[in-house]
């Protein structure tokens, strides 16, 4: 992995997964926790507003 990121920069490409991928995963995890605690469906838009 440590060789992967510099090689992607040399190719002028963004590493994958990237920061946006990580952000989306965190939002989904937060929505899942809220859904569990409140025993109801939670829309992603409730988390990211």
UniProtKB/TrEMBL annotation:
It holds the Pfam family GFO_IDH_MocA_C. Residues 1-14 have a biased composition (Basic and acidic residues). Residues 5-44 form the Gfo/Idh/MocA-like oxidoreductase C-terminal domain. Residues 1-23 are annotated as: Disordered. Signal peptide: none annotated. This is Gfo/Idh/MocA-like oxidoreductase C-terminal domain-containing protein.
């Amino acid at each position: 992995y440590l060789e992967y990121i510099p090689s992607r920069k040399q190719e002028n490409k963004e590493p994958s997964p990237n920061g946006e991928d990580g952000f989306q995963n965190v939002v989904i995890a937060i929505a899942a926790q809220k859904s569990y605690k409140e025993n109801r469906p939670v829309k992603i838009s409730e988390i990211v507003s």
